[in-house]
Specification:
By secondary structure, the protein is mostly beta strands. The protein contains no helices and 8 strands.
């Protein structure tokens, strides 16, 4: 796969289920989307300037294009959606 222009491909954890303190599984509706998340960069497009493959980046969970394929969860983000490189 080749990522184009200023897009960044991030691999997200497959299991995003969360548990409450008492062990109850919480659905996606219970996830706090107002807090940023961090994950690893897998591929970058040719126009990306400040992020490189292998970086851990911080971004908001509702940003970008979300995709599931081959038992993996992927997110395509534009470089402008990255809050920080860790």
């Amino acid at each position: 796969m080749k990522v184009l222009k200023d897009y960044i491909l991030i691999k997200e954890p497959l299991n995003t289920e969360k548990k409450s303190e008492t062990g109850i599984f919480l659905g996606e509706d219970a996830i706090d989307f107002s807090r940023p998340v961090t994950n690893e960069v897998i591929l970058v497009g040719s126009d990306v300037k400040e992020v490189k493959v292998g970086d851990t980046v911080m971004y908001m969970p509702k940003q970008g294009i979300h995709m599931k394929q081959d038992d993996c969860t992927w997110r395509f983000l534009k470089e402008e959606n990255i809050i920080a490189v860790m």
